[in-house]
Amino acid sequence: SSKRRGKGRWQVFDDTLLEAIERRRVLEAALRRAAVREDFDVVYQPIVDSSTDELVGAEALARWSPATHGAVPPAEFIPMAEELGLIGRIGMTVLRKACREAMSWPDSIKLSVNLSPVQILDPRLVSGVAAVLHETGLPPQRLELEITETALLGDDELALRTLNRLVALGVNVSLDDFGTGYSSLSYLHRFPISRIKIDGSFVNQAPVDANSASIVRAIAELGKSMDLQITAEGIETAAQREFITSHGCQNLQGFLISRPLSEAEFSDLCRAAGQERAA
Ligand code: C2E
Ligand code: MG
Ligand code: MG
Ligand code: MG
């Protein structure tokens, strides 16, 4: 290492920086190739009803494992895809694959798919979603598109028109990571949102931290009064589950319920859930 070469700490820093730049350069090239080849996996994290424990849906989560690097987390490759102008294409690949796979699940199981704020501003988004629904045959009522508050910040007239057109297709729109962004309540009036997903950071702290508990309580109340469905994300412990359920959130998602599953594993879970219901 450069330390052994005895050039001091600045050289160490330079090496690390160069390595980061090189990694980034290689990953960008690999991501461009993957976007063209549609070389992504989709995993599905189960979502259950908080009062009955019944399996009600799944969130599709993109996975990318370039041969040279092993798995690269979405927190790294999604922003990269946004910067490189690849997110529209990658987003559609994920949506198409997820809708196709959801067709083999029971009709009662909903599918949630994340949309990047960049996609909301893309004039091809609505026709792209319509084409995927047509092509896969998934009933639009089974599809929920998750957006974040960031998507509503910039050109909010355009965002409003786009969301209204998506809802006109019959799909539902959820507000993801709620509480972490600007969380202006006016969004909930202005945009056609039917569900809030409470961010895992509040869910996590709620049983032990008074502020997080108040936020969860306030969001649950808001949901009730505005007729919005509530999903709590990031449930990891029984105490969190209990707190969330007692505050009237309808749906639960998190490692306590299940980690994200492969399509085969999720299909098995649907089958098992169906047998349990029939028994
Ligand atoms: P998100 O949409 O909020 O998805 C939930 C994230 O929380 C997932 O991380 C999931 O694996 C993780 N998670 C679920 N339960 C727990 C839990 O109990 N504890 C903890 N600590 N984490 C939990 P993942 O798969 O790494 O995705 C991270 C983010 O990347 C997503 O957050 C979403 O914003 C973005 N993302 C993933 N797939 C896509 C995609 O296809 N398109 C777009 N635009 N964004 C995506
Ligand atoms: Mg999400
Ligand atoms: Mg989220
Ligand atoms: Mg998140």
UniProtKB/TrEMBL annotation:
Q: What is this protein called?
A: Bifunctional diguanylate cyclase/phosphodiesterase
Task: Report the coiled-coil segments.
Answer: none
Q: Where is the EAL domain?
A: 24-274
